[in-house]
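Hey, I'm writing a tutorial for new members on how sequence and structure tokens pair up, and I'd like a real worked example in the thread rather than a made-up one. If someone can provide the structure for the chain below, I'll link this post from the tutorial.
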Amino acid sequence: MDWLEEKLEELQKYIRNLSFRKAMVAYILVLAAVVFGLSYFTMMFCWQLELAEWTQYERADLLGIIYKKGPLWGFGYHFAAETNGFKILFLDLVRVWCPFIYAFAGMMVTICIFYQKRLAKPLSLLENSVERIRRNDLDFHISYESEDELGSLCDSVEDMRLELVRGKEEMLRLVERQKELNAAFAHDLRTPLTVLRGYTDFLARYMPEGKISEEKMQDTLALMSDHLRRLEDYSRTMKGIRSIDEVPFSPEWMELGSIEKKIGEVVFALNQVGDVRIHYRGCDGNHMEYSSGIRIEADDSIIMEVLENVLSNAIRYAGQEIEVMSDYDAEKREFMLTVRDDGRGFSKEQLDHALKPYHKEYEGKETDEHFGIGLHICREFCRKHGGTLNVANSIRGGAVVTASFGENSIYP
């Protein structure tokens, strides 16, 4: 029985996978066989009844003609007129016309069976799929177990659905990237503008009193010009890219002291605005002098972007002071920046999610200008520079953010 069931299943699968042309030929052949068989038995049955009826009239001449003509011949009314012929006429009509009647009825039944077996289910699947796609509902799967034309069409619709899903995911990813890029652009403009405001406040506070030498004023104006040029370059760069990943990375050999000097200038400017005091300690542990003689391969624009982003977050949540420290690990060939504030630090949940985009680093004390994307941008920039970004809580209280920048660049 198992063998028979297996063979029947294979036969059903073979029939199900037939193409429409072969399936229609098969259905027509079966219909022809059924019509032929039914017609033959009906005609023979009616002929036998008619012969029995004619025998009652003892007309040997008519019976001879009837036997000679056979069941395919219609007797005609002139024969039936010699008898009480309603029954004979009815049998004669059925015998002659039954092939046409069976053929017509068989075609109707065959069409219905063909539609129900081969067309109804795939057409219903396709109609439902097209309607759901029209409603932009792609959370479904279309499957039709047949290798005929409609089975191939169902497979094509499923492939189209998968492509639409991939396209939708790609579109959402691009929208998210653009949103992230816009937020990054808006976020990164704040600290440089604050630095410029710090220099402006410094000049406005001390120039009227004559406490600024001409040399100091020229240096300050040169620094402001450098920051403005960096803002222009940054705006031009952000205009031409589609995601943070495309931010250019251009490392070059430079003095470590020049990077520390730029950090010191940013700290100086930010100390001119706000109530939070920022202290900076360089690689040699000195607050005033910068390292000399050490050359590293770095992109100082990326390092300054990270510094400004981290400082922006620290200023927002610090109590009274912030400590900025830089260091260089000659063995690992890494430049490191550490920013510690005296705020309340990160919660456990925030430590797990602080580096994700659009996450607010602290609860409370938030404004509409806070995008929750600063640390995420810093992490991406550090990765681009072959380093990492880590967040933690200081044993003295407050948050600690450490950024490292490797000389061997790692592209995302």
